[in-house]
Amino acid sequence: GAVVSQHPSRVICKSGTSVKIECRSLDFQATTMFWYRQFPKQSLMLMATSNEGSKATYEQGVEKDKFLINHASLTLSTLTVTSAHPEDSSFYICSGLRSAGGEKLFFGSGTQLSVL
Amino acid sequence: DAKTTQPTSMDCAEGRAANLPCNHSTISGNEYVYWYRQIHSQGPQYIIHGLKNNETNEMASLIITEDRKSSTLILPHATLRDTAVYYCIVRVATGNQFYFGTGTSLTVIP
Q1: CB B64 within 8 A of CB B52
Q2: pLDDT at A93
Q3: H-helix or E-strand containing B71?
Q4: For chain A, which ranges sit under pLDDT 50?
Q5: Rounded CA gap, B50 and B52, in Å?
Q6: Coil, helix or strand for B81?
């Protein structure tokens, strides 16, 4: 399968600071990337769809000014959690859509964010 | 929104086949069925997907009913490492999002 690298894997930050999470597709070009968040014992919740070279599309209820997404190249998307608060603590997972051989989504290993 | 219904949890004996059902009674003609699994605290892993024909790869088999309203993921010889949450997703072939439902927590028992 294709490889998606996500880092950092874990980050602890103080309330009010911003945190950037990087997501790279290592062996394929991802025109589209998706960002999810997951709370303990819950399913993945889609936050936004990131398309290379254009603005991200956010799901209903997700604040675009709080969760800044940049998809500047076909292999890199970043999620910045701005002015993080304890309620933003969650597991954030990125994914890249590979079109070759039928569209498949490949996921990064996730980032556990803890806001103190 | 997720368009699938799966049992919350299942157990399977190690070495036996694990059969995970999924109902998708409102599936459209151009929607594929995808299966992913998530081992604790990791990103989900792609398993298999199909439109209407049965599919098999090195990980699993996907059986889709003729009316396409349900499907079954088969892990032919379950191992302890197959313990995970399995998600069934329906999605139009190109350009649409992947929405995850609640999935089935599969426990493989020694």
Answers
A1: yes
A2: 98
A3: strand B70-75
A4: none
A5: 6
A6: helix
